[in-house]
Write a structure and sequence with these properties.
The protein has 126 residues and is an alpha/beta fold. The protein is 41% helix and 21% strand. The chain contains four helices and seven strands, in the order ββββααβαβαβ. The strands form three sheets. It has a three-stranded parallel beta sheet with strand order 5-6-7. The longest helix has 15 residues. The radius of gyration is 14 Å and the shape is globular.
Length: 126
């Protein structure tokens, strides 16, 4: 099994530029990366999704965790994000699995549509 991590707020930051084996040492390094991250006050959902479409060709699934609606980026309108990302994904075939943490009903609907439109799943966390 391979994995990668991307943190997104104003922009997107990658932990590694490619998928890595899910070895014990890589998992520990990933945890250390996460612990060093601060909290952002912006949510560049569109930018993160675009980055994931261009990431390693062996990538099959994306797990997007968010606590808020899109607030910054080339577009912040959920309908435009869905149309663009799902349209581009017809060629890429990624499964977008989404996890909403205490999100409002509009953001939850957006996350469900993104997951459903790509063959992924949506989960709500409180």
């Amino acid at each position: 099994t391979e994995f990668a991590l991307m943190f997104y707020e104003t922009g997107a930051r990658l932990w590694r530029n490619e998928l890595v084996l899910a070895s014990e040492s890589n998992k520990l390094e990933a945890i250390a990366f996460i612990r060093r991250l601060g909290y952002g006050d912006r949510t560049n959902t569109y930018g993160a999704l675009r980055e994931s479409l261009a990431f390693d060709n062996d990538l099959e699934s994306v797990f997007m965790l968010t606590d808020g609606r899109p607030t910054i980026g080339a577009t912040v309108e959920p309908a435009k994000i869905l149309a663009d990302i799902l349209g581009r994904n017809h060629f890429r075939h990624l499964n977008f699995n989404t996890i909403g943490i205490a999100v409002n009903p509009n953001t939850e609907a957006f996350l469900k549509q993104l997951a459903d439109g790509s063959g992924g799943e949506y989960r709500r966390a409180l």
